From TrEMBL:
It comes from Symbiodinium pilosum. It comes from the Eukaryota. Pfam families: Exo_endo_phos (PF03372). SUPFAM superfamilies: DNase I-like. One of its GO terms (molecular function) is catalytic activity. The lineage of its organism: Eukaryota, Sar, Alveolata, Dinophyceae, Suessiales. This is Endonuclease/exonuclease/phosphatase domain-containing protein. InterPro entries: Endo/exonu/phosph_ase_sf, Endo/exonuclease/phosphatase. Residues 359-592 form the Endonuclease/exonuclease/phosphatase domain.
Length: 603
């Protein structure tokens, strides 16, 4: 009540939220609300609070990232004049160094960029970012790029730090206890859409109410011209000379905006005026991989050396290009990729005594919404009977719908557990061949989870447990070994209820020779100062058939393998007649190669 925020981000608030909003509204006269989108009480995030008497809620959601953290966002429209913005808040993991925060900034800004394509309004980013002003992560937010931690980082937007803008001589004051560092920020978007750079005040408030943090505020005059993407501003003005001049000026603003973030919608160019996609230097890659069997008239070409070279495919003439894309006309009659009839026939003949194909494929969540068609093309090419699919969130419905259109309605996802709330590996299966018995999801550390599904083959009653997981990346093998310990003990409990052999698949984010993978193959390992032992062992499908090359790259061109199909060996054997294992070419815009294992399932 003392600070009187109009919009705020509130980290570290869990089940107290209801009591806070009730008392706040008793005191204020019922003028506040929290944005309700997403499972905000299940993640360490930063809930969006707003004055509901002044702002109308358009949409909101929560997107998890590593370590149980998340980014909250809410699209809000001011009731007095229709000005709209995206208020966002986050709270990355504390006390692990700035690399973790830089990864979070990279994820958060790319996520907000996708949100901004759906809700084209400027962004305010707030939160406890758990790092200081001078750190690379914060330079990345202000500059849009930074060289740090042995690589170049680039994000699709830049921001102005409200406090530092008005206090350039003291940009890093303490906001926690009396520690000599700032952790809390209010950022106003600068490019490609400006919130409005008339920042009139920013304050670091005294510590109060028992918190170890000081609140940070930023007061800004929200420029209406910053809302040039708003559809309702597009010259819907009453007749008159003055209004026509304003409309012309607005159209110039729109043209400027659309040239900085190229779009088809509102671009003023018809299909006949667009350059041919075939003239673009990496058209062959788009046709062979990203765009697949495109029949739609438009795609968005990207530079091969850009931060995101994956084309936007299968667009209609009123679609958007994502950042860095420019529209082009897809050539009529361009040869499309074909699914091998031999592969399809061999898989359709599957049954008892014939091999069953298991596949794991990390789809790479960024830009996935624009790659549904090529992803489905590639799944049709691989013809999995059972698969684990990491890095797929809200795109799951679109993927299964299109996959069933193409396949004749033969696929399903196992439905057990809150699969869209964790970084996991959804279980896909041929529902014409397998019956779903039970399935669930069990979370473990860092917002990750193990998916499992007990399935029964319709032809002969053979049953198994298909499982998938995706442990935390880039923290060393100790984290993966802990995950393997948890996952196998969890699967042992599942196996007690459903006494069938296990197939374990996923992006395990570690190499073949690491202790965690030795643990899966041997059942025990001495590593990290202790002895580890798990209740089962597995055979690595690829390594079993390629003992001279067990650790080939499955991500980009990095010299390491991350993706695995494991068949249980003890105490229950899946069946050791592994007849084929393949590492598939990178396709459909993913940074990972799919891995498959074909096994004859012994009854």
């Amino acid at each position: 009540m003392r600070m009187q925020p109009e919009i705020a981000a509130i980290p570290e608030m869990w089940h107290e939220k209801g009591a806070i909003i009730d008392l706040l509204n008793q005191r204020s006269g019922n003028v506040y609300a929290f944005a309700t989108g997403g499972a905000t009480e299940q993640f360490n995030d930063a809930d969006i609070l707003y004055r509901s008497d002044k702002w109308e809620h358009i949409a909101s959601d929560l997107v998890p990232f590593s370590a149980g953290r998340a980014i909250n966002w809410a699209a809000l429209r001011r009731k007095s004049d229709g000005y709209s913005l995206i208020a966002s808040g986050t709270h990355p993991l504390c006390c692990r160094g700035d690399y973790v925060i830089t990864e979070a900034v990279d994820f958060v800004t790319k996520t907000l960029s996708q949100v901004q394509y759906q809700h084209p309004y400027p962004i305010v980013l707030m939160g406890d970012l758990n790092t200081g002003y001078y750190q690379p992560s914060q330079q990345l937010l202000r500059q849009g790029h930074v060289d740090a931690f042995g690589r170049h980082w680039q994000i699709p937007m830049t921001f102005t730090d409200a406090w530092a803008e008005l206090h350039p001589g003291n940009p890093d004051p303490s906001t926690i206890n009396d520690d000599p560092v700032r952790l809390d920020y209010v950022y106003f978007q600068k490019t490609p859409i400006s919130v409005g750079q008339s920042i009139v005040q920013s304050q670091i408030w005294p510590r109060a109410a028992g918190s170890d943090h000081r609140a940070v505020s930023g007061d800004v005059v929200l420029n209406r011209t910053a809302c040039y993407f708003l559809k309702q501003l597009r010259c819907k003005l009453s007749p008159g000379v003055h209004q026509e001049q304003r409309c012309t000026a607005l159209q110039l603003l729109l043209a400027t905006a659309e040239s900085s973030v190229p779009m088809l919608r509102g671009s003023g160019r018809g299909l006949t005026e667009l350059p041919s996609c075939a003239e673009k230097p990496n058209f062959h890659l788009a046709r062979a991989s990203w765009c697949g069997e495109q029949k739609e008239p438009v795609a968005c070409a990207k530079d091969s050396d850009g931060p995101n070279p994956v084309w936007d495919c299968h667009l209609q003439a009123d679609g958007f290009c994502s950042l860095g894309g420019s529209p082009c006309a897809w050539p009529t009659g361009a040869p499309a990729r074909e699914v091998s009839a031999t592969q399809s026939q061999s898989q359709n003949n599957n049954g008892a005594g014939n091999p069953t194909r298991f596949v794991t494929w990390n789809l790479y969540v960024f830009t996935l919404a624009g790659r549904i068609h090529p992803v489905v093309d590639e799944l049709m090419r691989m013809q999995p009977e059972i698969a684990a699919i990491p890095e797929m969130w809200h795109e799951k419905g679109a993927i299964i719908d299109l996959l069933n259109q193409r396949s004749g309605n033969v696929y399903a996802f196992a439905t057990g557990g809150a699969t869209e709330q964790f970084n996991d590996a959804d279980i896909l299966y041929r529902s014409d061949k397998w019956e779903h018995i039970a399935s669930d999801l069990v979370p473990f550390s860092a917002g990750r989870a193990i998916n499992w599904a007990a399935l029964r083959r319709k032809s002969d009653g053979y049953s198994l447990i298909a499982s998938g997981t995706h442990p935390l990346c880039c923290r060393g093998d100790y984290v993966i070994t802990e995950a393997v310990d948890f996952v196998t003990k969890t699967l042992s409990q599942v196996q007690y209820q459903h006494p069938y052999p296990i197939v374990l698949m996923g992006d395990l984010n570690t190499g073949y020779f690491q202790p965690s993978q030795q643990l899966l193959r041997q059942g025990h390992v001495d590593a990290f100062g202790r002895h580890w032992q798990i209740p089962m062992t597995f055979t690595d499908a690829w390594a079993e058939l390629h003992p001279g090359n067990p650790d080939p790259s499955t991500i980009n061109d990095d010299p390491v393998r991350l993706d695995y199909v494991y068949f249980q060996k003890t105490p229950i054997s899946v069946g050791q007649s592994i007849v084929q294992s393949q590492i598939w070419p990178r396709a459909a815009g993913s940074d990972h190669r799919a891995v498959s294992g074909d096994v004859v399932l012994n009854r």
